[in-house]
Design goal:
The protein is α+β, with helices and mostly antiparallel strands. It has one domain: Double Stranded RNA Binding Domain (2-Layer Sandwich). The strands form two sheets. A three-stranded antiparallel β-sheet has the order 3-4-5, with helices on one face. Helix 1 packs across helix 2. The longest helix is centred in the middle third of the chain and has 20 residues. It is elongated, with a radius of gyration of 29 Å.
């Protein structure tokens, strides 16, 4: 089952690896018998569905989730059932990819207007005049 990122974009199963492991936490004695925790590995080097720029941003924002082979690893173990953990891991991957799909705004240099420069200089002059009046006054 492919993971849907947006209505126009889905990650195919060939780019995902699911592994089920035993989890700690809630579940009582059942936790020792059932592999309810999920490890989802997104094979980023094999990915063809994302644009190159989004892949590069994804690599940059993945942080510690990025593994040595270039894939991204998610572990979900907070829920009691394997299916809920599977959904949680898939949602985390989708959220990270959605974040990477947003292209950052380009910062354009701006210059202060002539009026704002003149106002700034005028307030500096006024402040300096106020401070100079605080000193000792000479005999005039």
């Amino acid at each position: 089952m492919p993971i849907e990122i947006t209505p126009h974009l889905a990650i195919p199963d060939e780019e995902l690896e699911w592994k089920f492991i035993r989890a700690s936490g809630p579940g009582g004695q059942n936790v020792n018998k059932v592999s309810s925790a999920v490890q989802l590995r997104f094979l980023l080097p094999l990915n063809t569905s994302l644009p190159v720029s989004a892949r590069n941003r994804l690599r940059a924002i993945a942080g510690q989730k990025l593994v040595d082979d270039g894939s991204i690893l998610f572990t979900a173990r907070s829920e009691r059932s394997q299916e809920q953990n599977r959904r949680a891991a898939a949602e985390r991957l989708a959220a990270l990819i959605r974040t990477a799909m947003v292209e950052p705004k380009i910062r354009r240099k701006t210059r202060p207007t002539k009026g704002s420069q003149e106002r700034r200089i005028e307030t500096k002059k006024r402040r300096g005049a106020t401070k100079s009046q605080r000193g000792r006054q000479g005999w005039d």
